[in-house]
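Severity: low
Component: inverse-folding endpoint
Summary: output formatting inconsistent between runs
Steps to reproduce: submit the following C-alpha cells with default settings.
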C-alpha cells in the first residue's frame, strides 16, 4: 500500500537538539519546524491563498467548530472539501473545536459521552461527540485531523480535575481512532495534563499507542507562565515519538516559536499574528511596532528594513499609520501579510540555523535585537 503520510528528521542541531524534518502529506511536503497561519473560517483574514503562497506558507489551519456552525461541514463536502472550497491546494490541518468549546465555559456541559454547548452565534444547542467531531473533519477533507479533547484552565484547575480531563481525553481518543477510517487523513492524538508533569506524562503514555504520524501538545499557552510551558516541553521532549511531527497547539509568538523548536516542536499555530495586525501592531526584527503611535506620523522608512514582504518593500510607516487612523482596510491587510511573513521567515531562518548547527547563537542574536518578549 502506498505510504501517504510519513515524517523524516533531516538534521539535529548538535548543540541544542532542535531538529529539521520533512512531513510528507497527500497535498505536499512540509519542511519543519513550521508555523501554520490560521484560517479559522476557511480564510486567513484579509489574505488570499495566492498571498499565503507568496509569503511562504506551507500549511494552514482551519477550525472545526466554526465551520460546523457556518457554513456547515456538509455544504463544504458538497463543494468538494475544504481545499476546493477555499482554493488552497497545500496541506490543511483542522483542529477539533475542543478549545473553542472550552472557551464557552458558561455555555457548555461536558460528560464522558459528549459535550453539549450553545452556539456563540445564536444560542442554539448542539451536541459534539468524538464520532461527530471526526465526521465533520471527514466532510471538511483536511489532511490532518485532531481528536476531540478536554482542555482545562491553567492556574484554577486542581490535579484531581486535570486527571479527569486526561482520562476523558484518552477515552475520546479511542473513540476518535475507531471512527477515523479515511486513509487520506492523519489523526493526531492530543496530550493534556495542565501544568502537572505527572499528568502530562500519563497523557503521553495514553496517546503513544495511537500515534501513526503526528502527536499534539494541547492545553498550554492558556494562562500559565511561559516558563511553566517550557518546563512541560522539557519533560516531554525526549519521551515523544521521534519518527512523528510534534505539534504545539495555539502557540505563535516569536520567542515561543524559538523556545518550542529548541525543545523538539515541529509545528505551531496561533491567531496572534493576524489579530494584533488588525489592531495596528507589527512584529519587526527590532521588536513590536504599534503603527498608530504619533511618532510614526512623518516616518518615511519601511516597517522593517530586514523584511522582504510586500508591505516592507513598498510602504512606509507614515503611510501605514495613515491607513489605520483613517480606518482603511488595506492597513490590516498589509500588516497581516507582514506579520505572517515575519514568522514564516523566522522559521526559514531557524531551519537554516539548525542545519548549520548554530541554533543557539541564532537564538541569542534574535533576542539581542528583538528584546525579551
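Observed output (run 2 of 3):
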Amino acid at each position: 500500500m502506498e505510504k501517504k503520510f510519513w515524517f523524516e528528521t533531516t538534521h539535529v542541531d548538535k548543540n541544542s537538539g532542535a531538529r529539521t524534518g520533512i512531513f510528507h502529506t497527500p497535498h505536499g511536503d512540509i519542511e519543519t519546524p513550521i508555523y501554520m497561519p490560521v484560517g479559522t473560517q476557511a480564510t486567513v483574514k484579509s489574505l488570499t491563498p495566492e498571498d499565503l503562497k507568496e509569503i511562504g506558507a506551507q500549511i494552514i489551519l482551519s477550525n472545526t467548530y466554526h465551520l460546523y456552525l457556518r457554513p456547515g461541514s456538509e455544504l463544504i463536502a458538497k463543494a468538494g472539501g475544504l481545499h476546493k472550497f477555499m482554493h488552497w491546494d497545500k496541506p490543511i490541518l483542522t483542529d477539533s473545536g475542543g478549545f473553542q468549546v472550552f472557551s464557552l465555559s458558561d455555555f457548555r456541559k461536558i460528560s464522558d459521552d459528549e459535550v453539549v454547548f450553545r452556539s456563540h452565534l445564536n444560542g442554539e444547542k448542539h451536541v459534539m461527540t468524538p464520532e461527530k467531531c471526526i465526521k465533520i473533519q471527514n466532510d471538511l477533507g483536511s489532511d490532518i485531523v485532531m481528536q476531540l479533547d478536554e482542555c482545562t484552565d491553567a492556574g484554577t484547575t486542581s490535579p484531581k480535575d486535570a486527571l479527569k480531563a486526561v482520562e476523558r481525553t484518552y477515552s475520546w481518543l479511542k473513540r476518535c481512532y475507531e471512527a477515523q477510517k479515511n486513509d487520506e487523513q492523519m489523526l493526531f492524538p492530543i496530550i493534556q495534563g495542565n501544568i502537572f508533569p505527572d499528568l502530562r506524562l500519563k497523557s503521553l503514555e495514553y496517546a503513544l499507542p495511537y500515534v501513526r504520524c503526528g502527536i499534539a501538545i494541547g492545553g498550554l499557552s492558556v494562562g500559565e507562565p511561559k516558563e511553566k510551558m517550557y518546563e512541560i516541553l522539557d519533560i516531554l521532549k525526549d519521551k515523544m515519538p521521534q519518527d512523528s511531527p510534534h505539534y504545539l497547539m495555539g502557540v505563535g509568538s516569536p520567542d515561543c516559536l524559538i523556545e518550542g523548536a529548541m525543545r523538539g516542536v515541529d509545528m505551531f499555530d496561533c491567531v496572534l499574528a493576524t489579530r494584533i495586525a488588525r489592531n495596528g501592531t507589527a512584529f519587526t526584527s527590532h521588536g513590536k511596532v504599534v503603527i498608530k503611535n504619533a511618532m510614526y506620523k512623518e516616518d518615511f522608512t519601511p516597517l522593517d528594513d530586514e523584511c522582504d514582504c510586500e508591505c516592507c518593500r513598498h510602504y512606509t510607516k507614515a503611510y501605514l499609520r495613515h491607513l489605520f487612523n483613517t480606518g482603511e482596510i488595506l492597513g490590516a491587510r498589509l500588516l497581516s501579510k507582514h506579520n505572517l511573513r515575519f514568522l514564516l521567515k523566522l522559521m526559514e531562518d531557524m531551519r537554516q540555523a539548525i542545519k548549520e548547527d548554530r541554533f543557539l547563537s541564532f537564538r541569542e542574536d534574535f533576542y539581542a535585537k528583538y528584546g525579551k518578549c
